[in-house]
Amino acid sequence: MSNDAATATPAVTGTAGDAAPAPEALPHGLGVSLPSADARAKSEGTFPYAADLWAEGLLWAAVLRSPHPHARIVSIDTSHAREMPGVRAVVTHEDVPGTPLHGRGRIDRPVFASEVVRHHGEPIAAVAADHPDTARMAAAAVIVEYEVLDPVIDPEQAFEAEPLHPDGNLIRHIPLRHGDPEASGEVVVEGQYRIGRQDPAPIGAEAGLAVPRPDGGVELYIGSTDPHTDRDTAAAVYGLAPDRVKIVVTGVPGATADREDQGFQLPLGLLALKTGCPVKLTATREESFLGHAHRHPTLLRYRHHADAEGRLVKVEAQILLDGGAYADTSSEALAAAVSFACGPYVVPNAFIEGWVVRTNNPPSGHVRGEGAMQVCAAYEAQMDKLAKKLGLDPAELRMRNVMSTGDVLPTGQSVTCPAPVAELLEAVREFPLPALPKDTPEEEWLLPGGPEGAGEPGAVRRGVGYGLGMVHMLGAEGADEVSTATVKVHDGIATVLCAAVDTGQGFSTLARQIVQETLGIDEVHIAQVDTDQPPAGAGCRGRHTWVSGGAVERAAKMVRTQLLQPLAHKFGMSTELLQITDGKITSYDGVLSTTVAEALDGKELWATAQCRPHPTEPLDGAGQGDAFVGMAFCAIRAVVDVDIELGSVRVVELAIAQDVGRVLNPAQLAARIEAGATQGVGIALTENLRTPRGLIRHPDLTGYSLPTALDAPDIRIVKLVEERDVVAPFGAKAASAVPVVTSPAAVASAVRAATGRPVNRLPIRPQAAVVTGA
C-alpha cells in the first residue's frame, strides 16, 4: 500500500461546524431568531454527513451480527470469508489488541462476542473489502456455530435467572425513603403501567470513516455526540495512547440519543489499522435498529394516598427498567426515574423501589427524557384516577398539589431553581379549546384514521387531558460537567473553537449569537469539532446551552476586555463604563464613540475559558442527595378525538406552557418544543419496537411506525415562562426533553377522558380505546 493511501484525507464539501456569516441587515445577538448556522448547507445538499465521506484507496466494511438473542459460541470460522476475492481483512475478538470491552456508562460490552452472545444483533466479526457488496457477502460467509440458549426476556424473571453477564443481572437498585412510612391517606388509588421500547430512529443511519495515520494511529470521521469519550474508548480498544487516536465530528443528522453507537465505530478503526487503508461503514436501517441503544421498557406499580381534599399524603411505587444485555447508561436512567417518580408535586412521604436489570433484549440506553418519561406517564395516570375517585376536575386536583421554588423533592433536594408549575398549568387550562370538527364529507380528514378512515362520525368522542412533567439538566450524581471554549478575533472575523457537537439543538447558532452580542462582530465562524480541542462533554440534557454556551460567553468576555482595555486606559475610565452595541463602542458619558472595527485595527485577540456548574452528589442508600444541577418543567393540555368503535386516536391539539428560563432564539426554541412534543405523540400512539423472544421484529421504518406530518397535531405554545435560573449562564433552561416527557402522559390522559378506559400502557393500543356497549 502506498503512503498516499495511508494518509488519505477524506474528501468532503463544506465544513460541518462552519457558520455562514449572518447578513448585516439581519438582527443578531441573543434573543433574536438568527437563522440556523447550517441551514444553507443542508438546504443546498452540501452539508457533510458521515455517509458522504470518501478517501483515496477506500475499503468498505460490514459487520456480522448474531441472529440469536442468547447463545453460546462454539466456534468461529473465518477462512471462507478471508479467501473471497476482494476481501482485505476479517477481524474477530482475537484481533482486538487492547481492552476487549467498551460501554457508555459502564465498561461491560464486548467489541466482538467471543464466548456468548447476549442480544440479537451483537457483533461477531467485521470485514473490509474492495466493494460494499463484497464486504457484506464476506461477512455472511463467516461460519459461526452456536449452541442456542433460552433467552431471558422478562425483566421480572431476571432476578431469579442464571447470571447473563459476569457482573450479574442486577445493574442497579435504588431504595428511596422519604418521610413517614406509616403515613396514609383517606383516599387510595393503585395502578400498574407498562411503557414500551422506543427507538431513536435517526433519519440518517450510522456511518463513519477510519483513516490510518503514518504514526501508527488512526483518525475516525464519525457523527459522534461525545468525541473525547469515544476517542478514549477507541484508544483503549486499539491498545494506543489517546493522542494517537483522533475523532473528527462530521455532520450529525439529528440526535435524540447517543447518536453514534460505539459498536459501529470500533470495528472501523480495527480494520483500518489492520489493512493500512481507509475503511468506511454505512449501516443499513436494519443494522441501525440492531446496533444502537433504545428507550428502557418499564414496568411501574403505584399507590397514591391523598386526603379528602385531594392533597397528596404518600406515594409508593415500584419501578423496573429493562436494561437489555448491557448496562450502558441504565444507572442514570434509573436515578432519574426514581427521583422524579412523584412528578412536580409536593409529596411529604415517598417510598420508591427502583431496579434496572439485564435481560437478553436489545440494549437500552440514553434516549431523550430517559427515566423521567416513563414515570410521568404513570404518575399522571394516578392523578387522573385520584381525581375521578374524588369527583374533582383533573386540572384542579393537580393545581392543589403542584410544587414551587423552595419545595423539596423526595430525594431531599430543595428545588432552588425557578419552578413555576402552577403558572404553567393555569396557562394551558385557560387557553381556549379548539373547535369541534364538522360532520361533513369535506371535513372527513378530521376523523381519527385520516382521509381514508373507516370510522363513523357518530362513534367519535373528544377528550381533554393534562400532563405535568419535569426533567433534570446536565449530568447528575457527581458527574463532572465541564466545557472549554476559545474565541479568536482576527481581521474583524471571530472564530469559536469548542468541542460541543451540534446535534440539532442549535449550539452553533447560539455560539454565534453569544459572540455577536458580546463583541459586536457580525461574522462569526464555528470551527469543526475534533479531539485536538479540549473536551466539552456529551450533547444531551441541555449541556451545551448551559456549559458550553457558558464557556463561549466567558471566553468572549475576556476578548471583550482585551479589546476595551486600551480605550478605557486612554480615556481614564474602567472597561465597565464602556458598552458595545450594534458594532459600536460608546462610553457612559458619550465622550467615546468608535466602531469595533476601528478599535480592532488589525489586532488578533483570543482567549480560552471553562465553565463548570456547581457539583452534585450521588444518591445515598436511602435515595437521598443533591443529585441534580437544575430542573425544567412543562405543562401540556392534550385534546384528542377517539373512535370508540375502532380504537383509533387522533391528537387534535397540544397546548404547551414551558419553563424556559430565558428565550435565546425564539424560532429555534419553538422548533425544539414542537419537535419534542411531536416525538411524544409517537411514543403515546405508534412507536413500539417489538421484540418477541428477544428478536427485533421488523427492524425498519415500515415495521416501526413513526409519526408523520399527518399525525402531527396543532401545537400551541401558549406561554413561555422566562424566570431566569441564576446559576445558569444566560438563565436559560433545556427545552426539548421536557415536552417529550410530558406529551405522552397528556395524550393518554385525554384518551382516558374520552373513553373512560384506564389506558395503562404506552403506546396506546386500539383495544385500549374501544368502548363496548357505547
UniProtKB/TrEMBL annotation:
InterPro entries: Ald_Oxase/Xan_DH_a/b (IPR000674), Ald_Oxase/Xan_DH_a/b_sf (IPR036856), Ald_Oxase/xanthine_DH-like (IPR016208), AldOxase/xan_DH_MoCoBD1 (IPR008274), AldOxase/xan_DH_MoCoBD2 (IPR046867), AldOxase/xan_DH_Mopterin-bd_sf (IPR037165). Residues 44-150 form the Aldehyde oxidase/xanthine dehydrogenase a/b hammerhead domain. Pfam families: Ald_Xan_dh_C, MoCoBD_1, MoCoBD_2. It comes from Streptomyces heilongjiangensis. Residues 1-31 are annotated as: Disordered. Residues 1-27 have a biased composition (Low complexity). Gene3D superfamilies: Aldehyde oxidase/xanthine dehydrogenase, a/b hammerhead (3.90.1170.50), Aldehyde oxidase/xanthine dehydrogenase, molybdopterin binding domain (3.30.365.10). SUPFAM superfamilies: CO dehydrogenase molybdoprotein N-domain-like (SSF54665), Molybdenum cofactor-binding domain (SSF56003). The lineage of its organism: Bacteria, Bacillati, Actinomycetota, Actinomycetes, Kitasatosporales. This is Xanthine dehydrogenase family protein molybdopterin-binding subunit.
